[in-house]
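Table 4 source record.
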Amino acid sequence: MFRKLATAACATLLISCMDYSLDNPSANHSPTPIPASQLPEVEAITLPESVAAHVKATYADEQNISVEQVNILRFSREIWSDGCLGLGDPAELCLLTLTEGWQVEAVDPTTRGNSQFYRTDLTGGQIRLSKLENNLPPSVGDRILQTLRVKGMAQDNELSIVSAEPQVWDSCLGVADEDEICAAIGILGWKATATDTQSSWTYHTDGLGNAIVLHSASEALRGTIPPALRPPDETDHSSEINVDDFS
């Protein structure tokens, strides 16, 4: 009952405050990170207004709506692999130089969470729509893989992220013991699965990868995970909150 009431309240609050994360960096990551390793913490950052404006204008033009209808959800500072921001066409010539920039998610709340991910350079002067199936920020994906390496849980030479989905989590990041109470506070994050081709691990994270929680592991590996790192055996008792539920 507590979670149903909390989730309903959160849905009402979040849709009216989606742009809050632009002015308050803490809205883009868990207020109480749950460290999964000894990785250094990523500092919260603010998306530059110029980048947000470029993304909003681009999304509004593509969706044929007014800029005022567009909200910014997830964003992260990234280093792209080339001058095409890692999104060049096969026949496109891309400058082979690392390019600093941003990944930004834009949404029109009236379409029940129909969002798009964009990649930009540092200023937002170059912007590209991502048509990738997996838009997990490279910075977050790297931290998930580093967590597995630090814990010695994977064969490093074959380690990779194979799937990822954006999520809006409760305070437990969707992983809780049966008697644990999780507040439906709406943490923007990810659900990502990594594999070394022999075993797989599914993690829940906050938006920056400061909080990384093991949700499940393949049966082949489960017996090798220290008890303190194992996910609960019971059904997931979290209050997972989907952006699609907000209107």
